[in-house]
Amino acid sequence: MASAADKSELIRLARKGKVDGDDGFRVKLLDLERGGIKGPGHDYGLDFSKKPFYRTALWEATWKNHEAIVKLLVEKGATIDFKDYQGRTPLHEAAFYGYRNLVEYFLDKGHPIDPLDNFGQSPLFRAAEAGRDEIVELLVSRNASTNLLDKDATTAQHISRRLFPRTAKHVRVAALQRRLEEPLRDKGRGNCRACRL
User: Fold this and answer.
1) What is the spatial distance between Cα 48 and Cα 61, in angstroms, rounded to a whole number?
2) Which UniProt keywords apply (predicted)?
C-alpha cells in the first residue's frame, strides 16, 4: 500500500510538471498504481489531498497548466470535479487562469459547467473576475448560466463590469447573455450588490 508521503510526492510532481524520466510523474503514477492506488477516491485512489488546501494532483496540474499530466490523471480515473478547501474545482482554476485547452478538455470529459464554490461562484465568475474574455465566451457558448448570483448577490457580468470599467469586456458578457438567455436587465435594475456600487 502506498504511503501518504508517496501520494504527496505525486501531488508535488503534478505541480512541478515533469512527465517523463526516472523521477517524473509517469513513473511515480505507475509505482502508485502497483501499490493499489488507482481510480477515484481520497484514501485509496488518485484523489488524495491534504491540509490545509485539500488540492489533488489533478487540481495542482491544472493550476500549472500541465496538460499531459491532467490527461494522464483523468485517463487513470481521477475525479475530474474534486473540490479544494474553497469548493473550487479544476475547471474553476482553468477558467481563472485562461487555460482554454483545459477548460475545453474538462467540459468534453463531462465536468459540470456550473459548479459553485463556497462563495457561490461558478467557473464563469472566475473567468470574468480575471478578465478572460475568451474563456467567458467559451463558457457562455457552452450554456454556462449567466444569471447566477454569488453570496454577495453579484453576477459574473457585474464582476466584469466592476473590475474592467474602461474596457469592453463586460459588454461581451452582456451581449452573449442577451443572445443566449433572458437578459438580466429585464429582471429589474438594482437587484444585485454590484449595481449599488
Assistant:
1) 14
2) ANK repeat, Repeat
DSSP string for residues in 78-139: --TT---TTS--HHHHHHHHT-HHHHHHHHHTT--S----TTS--HHHHHHHTT-HHHHHHH
Q: What are phi and psi of 132, to 5 degrees?
A: -90, 80
Q: Are 139 and 99 in contact (CB under 8 A)?
A: no
CA 17 and chain centroid, separation: 18
**Omega prior to 90 cis, within 30 of 0:** no
CA angle 121, 126, 127 (to 5 degrees): 135
pLDDT reading at 107 higher than 70: yes
In contact, 49 and 81? CB cutoff 8 Å? no
Q: How far apart are the C-alpha atoms of 35 and 45, rounded to whole Å?
A: 11
Model pTM score: 0.80
Average pLDDT estimate for 1-18: 84
* Integer Cα distance of 72 and 155 in angstroms: 35
Residues in contact with 9: Cβ distance below 8 Å, sequence separation at least 6, in sequence order: 28
Q: In degrees rounded to 5, what are phi and psi of residue 81?
A: -120, 35
CA dihedral 50, 53, 57, 58 (to 10 degrees): 140
What is the rounded distance in angstroms from the CA atom of residue 65 to the CA atom of residue 14? 10
- At which residue does the C-alpha cell 474592467 appear? 164
Banded pLDDT at 156 (limits 50, 70, 90): confident
